[in-house]
Amino acid sequence: MLKNLRVFGFALIVSIGSLALANTPETLLIGPGDTLRIQVLDTPELEQHPRVTDAGEIPLIGVGDLKVVGLTPAAAASKIRERLISMHYMNHPDVTVTIEQYSTQVVSVLGQVKNPGAYTISTPRSILSIVALAGGLTESADFHITIQRRDASQQPVSYTLSNDPRAAIADEVQVFPGDTIVVPKAGIAYVLGDVRRPGGFVMQNNHSQLTVMQAIALAGGTAPSAVPSHARLIRKAPEGGYREIAVNFSAIQKGKQSDIVLEPDDVLYMPFSYLRNIASTSSGIVASATSASVYAVP
């Protein structure tokens, strides 16, 4: 039932995601090899369909060679208009430029999607529709997605696929032919010791993180024989090795201490008893974590 609800929710996001595109500012830049359609209002004889050369120029009647690579279609139209006026070819031309055909007709989707690969698109598409083409996210996917534009000089675009459909749509971005989408793998935190369901848990939420309280909840809670006031957090040290952090889970439960945000590869150990807590070592706990079963977060 829960799986069906998640599928329905993602389908709902995809179906209405295109509504946000109408207000998305134009960001696609003209690149070498693109075929443009240039029109001048009330002057059909000036309609042209030039291809952008490797040098980034287009040959235009009445204008000559004009460099347009790196410009948006709107900026290219403005540049053509200015050239027509400066050459006294026309006084008040109304110019429009559209990309008729992209030089690159595929978008690459890599990482934690069910069907990674290259997908053919001829027009800009929403990020949600592209993720849907790739079969959706895997259960170990991080919700923070990176989009590298086909123009490598542009900064990568970050997008968070929120669990909230409204937020996912409000932050919607467009994907263009030639772009590359990378969906990273979410971090994993381990909960071992006297809990009902020890194992590794994927940090798959809007913040790509888990707290101690959330991790214990995913592990089914503590067993009656546990000593939650003497829990330990084993974390990788920047200089190498591991360091231990004392965690009073009883105090956290009662609201006397703040919850602790876990980091990827953290190991939270819940002792069985005072005696076994003393006997266990950090190296032994970390070794146990490597063989722990990974449970997908619902």
Give a quick rundown of the structure:
This protein is α+β, with helices and mostly antiparallel strands and 298 residues long. It is built from eight helices and 17 strands.
Structural class based on helices, strands and sheet pairing: alpha+beta
Globally, the shape reads rod-shaped
Any low-confidence stretches, pLDDT <50, length ≥5?
A: 1-25, 293-298
The tally of structural domains comes to 3
- Roughly how many Å is the radius of gyration? 27 Å
Share in helix: 10-25%
Written overview of the protein:
The chain is an alpha+beta fold. It folds into 3 domains: 35-101, wza like domain (wza like fold); 104-183, Roll (Outer membrane lipoprotein wza fold like); 188-295, Outer membrane lipoprotein wza domain like (Outer membrane lipoprotein wza fold like, Roll). It has helices spanning 2-17, 73-86, 127-133, 165-170, 212-218, 249-253, 274-279, 282-289, and strands at 35-40, 57-60, 64-67, 95-101, 106-111, 117-120, 125-126, 144-148, 157-160, 174-175, 180-183, 188-193, 199-202, 231-236, 242-247, 267-270, 294-295. The strands form 5 sheets. Strands 15-14-16-12-13-17 form a 6-stranded mixed β-sheet, sandwiched between helices. It has a 5-stranded mixed β-sheet with strand order 6-5-11-8-9, with helices on one face. The chain starts with a helix and ends with a strand.
